[in-house]
Amino acid sequence: MFPVRSTLRQARQFSSTSRSLSVLDYFKFFKKKTPSNTPQPKQTAQVIEEVKNNQDKITSEAEIEIIGKKNPRYYDEEVIAENLKGFSEKYWIQGQSIKQGDVSELLASIFNQHKVTPDDKPIDNLYLRFAIFKAVQERFGVFIPDSKFTFLDSYAQFESTLQNLLDPALKTTKKNEFQPDAVDFNLEEFKGTNVHITKHVFKSEKEKKYAELLEKAKLEEEKSLENYKSSNSTSSV
C-alpha cells in the first residue's frame, strides 16, 4: 500500500500575550484630571478691561482703621463690654500687700501644707517643687520667672527670692510714656542661664552715633594732615 498524504492544511492558532505595565502607567491611571471649571489664563488687556467694567460692582464692607485715630474698641468701656459679651478673665496671680517681715511665716505655712519641712534640704520631687512654686506665687501675689524654677529647690532659695522681690528699694519701674508696653527684664534673674538680653538700639540712635563717629574721624584726619604738613615745612627749612 502506498502512504496517503493528507491534503488538509493545518491552521495556526493566533496567540498574544498581555502587555506588562510599568510604574509610570500606574501614575498615568491615577492622574488627576483638570476640572472643567478651572480658571483659564487670560490676557492682561482682557483682565484690565473686565476690572474697568466691573469696578462699580465691587463693594467692601470692611472698615479701614486709620493710623492716629482713636478706635473706640480700645478705650470705650461700653464698646469693650459689648464685644466681650459677658466674657471675664480671672488672673491666678492677684496683687497682695505682703511685707518682707511676713515672708518666713507665710512661706513656712506653704511648705507645711505640702508636707515639706522648711529647712535647707533640697526638694528632689519635681512635681512637689512645682506645686510649691505655684502656691508661692499665688499666696504672695508675685510673678517668678520660669527660669528661676531650676534654682528654687529649697526653703532658703524661696525665701531669698521672695525677700528680693518684696524689697521696696528694688520695686522701681523703668516704663515711660513713649513705650507703655515695653517689657523690663532684670538681668540678674537670667544669670547662669542660656538667655542673653541686650539693650535695643533704635535706628535713629545708630545713625546719630555713626554721624558723630564719622565727624570725629574727619577731624582727626584733618588734624593728622596738618601735623604732617607742618613737620615737612619745618624739616625743609
Provide tags for this entry.
mainly alpha; Non-ribosomal Peptide Synthetase Peptidyl Carrier Protein, Chain A; 8 helices; 43% helix; extended
Question: Which CATH C-level class of the domain at 102-172 is it?
Answer: Mainly Alpha
String of helices and strands = HHHHHHHH
Beta strands, count = 0
Report the C-alpha radius of gyration, rounded.
Answer: 41 Å
The CATH topology label of the domain at 102-172 is Non-ribosomal Peptide Synthetase Peptidyl Carrier Protein, Chain A
Sheet with most strands: none
Question: Beta-strand level of the residues, as a percent range?
Answer: under 5%
Relevant CATH superfamily of the domain at 102-172: ACP-like
- The helix content, as a percent range, equals 40-55%
Shape: extended
CATH architecture call of the domain at 102-172: Orthogonal Bundle
> What is the residue-averaged pLDDT?
75
- Helical stretch tally: 8
N-to-C span: 151 Å
Computed structural class = mainly alpha
Task: Give the low-confidence spans.
Answer: none
Brief characterization of the structure:
The chain is mainly alpha-helical.
Task: Describe this structure as you would to a colleague.
There is one protein chain. This protein is extended. The mean pLDDT is 75. The chain has helices at residues 23-29, 44-54, 72-75, 77-84, 103-113, 126-140, 155-165, 203-236. Helix 5 crosses helix 7. It is built from eight helices and no strands. 43% of the residues lie in helices and 0% in strands. It is mainly α and 237 residues long. The termini are far apart. It has a domain at 102-172: Orthogonal Bundle (Non-ribosomal Peptide Synthetase Peptidyl Carrier Protein, Chain A), CATH 1.10.1200.
